[in-house]
Amino acid sequence: MSSERGNWGSNVGFVLAAAGSAIGLGNLWKFPYLAGKNGGGAFVVVYLGLIVILGFSLMLGEMVIGRRGKSDAFGAYNNIKKGWGFIGMLGILCCFIVYSYYVVIAGWIVKYIGMFIRGGLTEDPVLTFGNFIASGTSPILYSFIVVVVTAAIVLKGVSGGIEKASKIMMPILFVFMIVIVIRSVTLPNAIEGIKYFLKPDFSLITPAVIIAALGQVFFSLSLGMGAMITYGSYLPKDSNLIKSALYIPILDTVIALLAGLAILPAVFSFGLEPTAGPGLIFITLPRVFAAMPFGNVFGIMFFLLVLFAALTSTISLLEVVVSFVVDQLKLDRKKATILVSIIIAAIAIPNSHSFGPMADFKVFFGLNFFDFLGYLTDNILLPVGGLMLCLFVGYVWDKEDLKNELTNDGDIAFPLFSAWMIGIKYLGIQLLSLILLQAVGITGKKMSYSLVIIFMIQILFHVLENKRKVSAV
Ligand code: PHE
After folding, report:
1. How does residue 3 score in pLDDT terms, banded at 50, 70 and 90?
2. Nearest to 253 by CA among 288, 222, 226, 217
3. Helices (H), 186-206
4. How far apart are CA 431 and CA 210, in angstroms?
5. 39-71 as b/e, with b when 16 or more CB fall inside 10 Å?
6. Which residues contact 469 (CB under 8 A, 6 or more apart)?
7. Which CATH number fits domain 2-353: 1.10.4160.10, 3.90.660.10, 3.30.2270.10, 1.10.443.10?
8. pLDDT tens digits, one per residue of 106-159
9. CA 295, CA 286: separation in Å to the nearest integer?
10. How far is CA 395 from the centre of its chain?
11. Ligand 1, CB cutoff 6 Å, lining residues
């Protein structure tokens, strides 16, 4: 069965594809603007801390579920423990929704590549951007380009499509990134931007900053929605999961930091504001390119690298859903890819229209379609998926079985097993509960009490578990 499902051709191929999934608009578009908005260095420090204490652990958690379950996200959970597939289902749903709005932003990137090839900005960037995204049909067509290219790659399968594409796009992305960073940090006054980005002002660390950083860790590492489970399921049994789970967050974080260094020093150098939010790369950055010698060349390079990053992510978003359709609904890969892509293209329309004709059409909670889906995935589905993942690895999956899978039946040493467990069980569950509590409006004292209660329940479980172990002996 496994050969039909597909396999990675090499470990390097897997790492590049998984890093490709992680590295995306989250790193290049969201991370710099979130840092710009949330106090620069303060946000970066919290983000790095969370990657270390949570990112690695959860990455390993998802990969080990995938390799053991040897199926799509739903099937993998079910294969390890019957009845738990719903966690994977939640992730598949989340990928599906994220994909439907991700393609809209990726489409804007395609448009910008075209714009720089044709000579760059012709009018004020605020107008250019605002008019374009509100213009109805044109942004939709650009997002369709992304849907079609993504489908064409996923159609070709795991090693022939996804792995091959990642092996081409990822190295180009790295090289372009380095060129842009060098250009940016050597601009006059760039040092101001570097300071803003890397020098933390600890007084700016607030609960809101921590919550924003935590959400970003999940999104950026493609965690909590089954992507790493799906990619992990194509790994051979003798691969070293522990090493891969280290490489991928490191690569992802390096690119996020380089993205900040590519953008913020340039923004400061031209006396522009870092707090522009989502418009930072679409409005502020084109201004920078317009003012710089050979700006168009740098513009093409920058948007091309963002497109490659976005495509290696859309591939994984689509693959999560396609692998479910192939494994569970038994459709062949070609049919599954085309079917899912058509539905995604249809949902991309209201997503794109949310910036134009449907901007004022409120779906729920006073949010328009795009904002509502973003809220649903970032504040509900992702943290719930992450929490369930922690509960599953920490409490549901038999410890011995888990340990054997992680260490390839004892072939690889993993002395940090207990520390890893603590990370997942306690830090993971506490931090994810925190996001969820605040998403449902439980804040302040009530939040603290709730977290203490959760912790006490965990301690109780711990005591009971030990008792059971002792009586078993
Ligand atoms: N990690 C991707 C990014 O940073 C987004 C993504 C999330 C992709 C989940 C796949 C699964 O852009």
Report:
1. very low
2. 217
3. 190-198
4. 10
5. bbbbbbbbbbebbeebbbbbbbbbbbbbbbbbb
6. none
7. 1.10.4160.10
8. 999 999 999 999 988 888 888 899 999 999 899 999 999 999 999 999 999 999
9. 9
10. 25
11. 21-22, 24-27, 95, 98, 219-220, 222, 225, 227, 313, 316-317
Report yes or no: 232 and 7 within 8 Å, Cβ to Cβ: no
Cα 310 to middle of ligand 1, angstroms: 8
User: Which tokens go with 460?
Assistant: 């109780």
Could you identify the residue written with the tokens 């993971």? 428
Spatial contact of 348 and 144, defined as CB atoms under 8 Å apart: yes
Q: List residues bridging with 299 in a β-sheet.
A: none
Q: How far is the CA of 424 from the centre of ligand 1 (A)?
A: 21
What are the extents of the domains in the chain? 2-353
Using most ligand atoms within 8 A of CB, pick from 316, 320, 378, 389 the residue to mutate for ligand 1: 316
Mutate which of 29, 220, 253 for ligand 1 pocket (most atoms within 8 A of beta carbon): 220
Q: Which of 32, 30, 25 is nearest to 265 (CA)?
A: 32
The token duo for 180 is 């842009």
What is the number of the ligand 1 atom nearest to the C-alpha of 223? 9
How many A from CA of 101 to the centre of ligand 1? 12
